[in-house]
Amino acid sequence: MATFAKPENALKRAEELINVGQKLDALQALHGLITSKRYRAWQKTLERIMFKYVELCVDMRKGRFAKDGLIQYRIVCQQVNVSSLEEVIKHFMHLSTEKAEQARSQAQALEEALDVDDLEADKRPEDLMLSYVSGEKGKDRSDRELVTPWFKFLWETYRTVLEILRNNSKLEALYAMTAHRAFQFCKQYKRTTEFRRLCEIIRNHLANLNKYRDQRDRPDLSSPESLQLYLDTRFEQLKIATELELWQEAFRSIEDIHGLMCMVKKTPKPSLMVVYYAKLTEVFWISSSHLYHAYAWIKLFTLQKSFNKNLSQKDLQLIASSVVLAALAVAPYDHKRGASHLELENEKERNLKMANLIEFNLDPKSENREPLSRSSLLSELVSKGVMSCATQEVKDLFHLLEHEFLPLDLAAKTQPLLSKISKLGGKLASASSVPEVQLSQYVPAIEKLATLRLLQQVSQVYQTMTIERLSQIIPFFDFTTVEKISVDAAEHNFLAMKVDHMKNITVFGNLGLESDDLRDQLTTLAESLNKARSMIYPPAQKSSKLGEILPSLGEIVEKEHKRLLARKSIIEKRKEEQERQLLEKEREEESKRLKLQKITEEAEQKRLAAEYEQRKNQRILREIEERELEEARALLEEAEKHSKRKGKKPILGEKVTKQTLMERALSEQLRERQEMEKKLQKLAKTMDYLERAKREEEASLIEAAYQRRLVEEKLLHECEQQQDVEQSRQRHEGDLMEKGRLSRMLKNKEEFQDKMTKSREAEFVRRREEREQRINQKIRARKREREAQRKKIFYVMHEEERLKKLREEEEARKQEEADRRRREEADHQAKLDEIAEKQRQRERELEEKERLRREALLGRSTDGLSRPSVLPAGSRPEPVAAAATATATAAPTPGKYVPPKFRRAESSGQAPADPDRWGGGSRQGGPPGTDSWSRSGPRQSPDSWSRAGPRQASGDFSGGSRPTWSSSRPRER
């Protein structure tokens, strides 16, 4: 990787490489500079480098390079100039979008060009063959080759920018803008898969913000600005999801919005809540959840009525009618009959969840009241005044279906009302956030409700009815559909009805006919007999057994309750421990995988870099040679053309080089230029004479034409002046007539003007007083805030000074402690040096005494052995050794080593039998006394010396004595 002294040098080098067509080398040069730790201080040059870097990344579609560079640049300018990062990211997204649009327009132009190539043939032969081979059309092929790569890069750009900005509190607006642009991209090009991924990415970003709250630059969701940006992003996500008809993703977006509102404990603006409930109505209607759909409509009606001051009466009636029809569309029976306990619990939890999602607060008067039900919904319609705002047709329909008893005429009276209601609807003029309201969507559900009501009322009046008659009084559906509806109602215990197709009749009954009374006859009989028996023969010990059971029952229940609570806590702890272990295991595996991946990538990058450098050098050399050859060839061809054009012989048979060809071409160009200048001078002189002659001839003709033009313009001016005078006269007469006509209304106009002026003055005075009151209130509130802020600042400064003083005292104490410890160490070291010096002095004295003693002993032994030749070979000088030993034993001097008693006894006894072992003879078989030495006492093994103790082994004896040695020659030092 090349290093640069200044960033400007890298930018110049990149521009040079771009000019010669080596964009990849330029990109790698800039990438090396940006990722280098040498240039971590922000400067304006780095911004220009980043602009050039992202341009190269977009041109070459290098998304990975762009992401690495932007991450490094974020590190550089995060704390210094974050607006520079914002500008770079905006430029990056602009370039990516522009390239994608260019590719799309280019593909369209290419497709149009292909379509008009041959006007006679439907398809070109090559297009026909290609379509048979590839199985795709021309547009699909052009999109795959041109448009798809750029769209992939644009999508990768959005993901990169969102990943970079996800934890940056200073660029929250840019994050929201990028998310909005990504949503619009998915909407414009119908990218449903990418939209799901984008929603999941944004959802994970928010989850990580809540999970890792100790990050330095983390956005603060409690701030109103941050909350508004996040809510706007989620609402835009909700709108795009409904437009793309991704209803599951829309419901998840609604859950995200609700979770965000619960997280910060703050309700958004009413305009956003209107959008929230409007989209909820769409989602619930698509999912056939009519009950939740109606509750969402009630909340939407309440918001519009309370906060929309521009809501017209017509729009209010339309919304109220939608609420009533949505409530009527809910089935009049629940689906809980025959369900298991688990299903009932799940349904209850689902209702509670939906109630929280809709934010519908129930009146907790009845303990057994369900969270959401059709009965409570209808009571809400009356209590909130929805019925009073609905249209008359809707009111009549509601009264007819819920309060009237018309077994035979119910459908006949309902049908005209439904036909009128189906024509109502349209867009709301004063509620832009509410979608288009069409009441016709509720007609099928209300027809089903009317059929159920009719069957219910007929079953209360008739026992049997023919199928033809029943089909006549139900005109909405054919009898097959009516039969399906009745089967579902009978299954959920709403109707008691049987269809006999053999007799062609329908049999009705009450709800107890087919249920528990007949089905459980034997059980009822057994219970009655058991009751009679107990009355005749009452049990004797029943009360006593119950009295024995009751006292212990409370303890058993309490113990069981405690056991269940303990078991629940243990299960929760085990779950938490298991989740923690799984999380740690995943983290370890992820870290191992990242390390292995990093090592592999580094090795691969090194190998690729080496191969790339080698290929680059070879390519540069080859390009230079080819360029030289091409230039020489072009010059040769040019020279041959000129020589043929001028009748000269071409250059043949001689050795031509690039330098000679260039010299000849330059000389030829110079000569041609001189000839051309001469021709131009001659032509200019000729044109001069010709122009002078033309002007001399034209002078008289121009003067005559000018005089004729003066006469014509004078006549034209007089005619136009007369026309203007006539038009002015006619206009004046018309204005006089208009003035006379309007003068009758002048008095009324002045009265109305005075009235409006007075009312506006009064309104102005009132609003001015209100404004002054609000200003005074705000001034007082701000004064209180400033006072509290000043107190807080004073307290913080005082606390900081106190903490600073404590830190200074602690540092001073630590410094004194360190100085004292250093002084003690220095004194201790000085004492140790003094003791060591005394020890060395004592050792020198001992060595001097030992040397003198050895010299004395050496002189005596020399006198005793004055005639060594008299002794036989191999004999031992025992008298001398004995005398020396006796002398050393008898007369111990102070400061010398005195062996213990057992050593002295051994030394006074006879010598060992082996003369060579104790040094009596020669070590090399020579004469005695030549190189022999002896010691006071028997020779010890090395183990005995090693066991003598550390001080004796090192020569430092406790008594200051040293072992006595005798030798036949002085000890060498």
Could you write a compact summary of the structure shown?
This protein has helices at residues 7-19, 23-35, 44-60, 63-77, 82-115, 125-134, 138-165, 172-188, 192-211, 224-243, 247-264, 270-286, 290-307, 313-328, 341-358, 374-383, 386-389, 392-402, 410-422, 443-461, 467-473, 479-491, 516-519, 521-536, 542-645, 658-742, 746-864, 878-890, 901-908, 942-946, 950-953; strands at 425-426, 437-438, 464-466, 497-500, 505-508, 933-935, 965-967. It is mainly alpha-helical and 973 residues long. One of its GO terms (biological process) is formation of cytoplasmic translation initiation complex.
Descriptive key words:
about 950 residues, mainly alpha, three-stranded antiparallel beta sheet, two-stranded antiparallel ribbon, 31 helices, Eukaryotic translation initiation factor 3 subunit A, EIF3A, coiled coil
Q: What is the structural class?
A: mainly alpha
* End-to-end C-alpha gap: 64 Å
Largest sheet: 3 strands, antiparallel
The strand order across the widest sheet is: 3-5-4
Residues in β-strands, percent: under 5%
Main location: cytoplasm
GO molecular function: mRNA binding; translation initiation factor activity
Keywords: Coiled coil, Cytoplasm, Initiation factor, Protein biosynthesis, RNA-binding
Subunit structure: Component of the eukaryotic translation initiation factor 3 (eIF-3) complex.
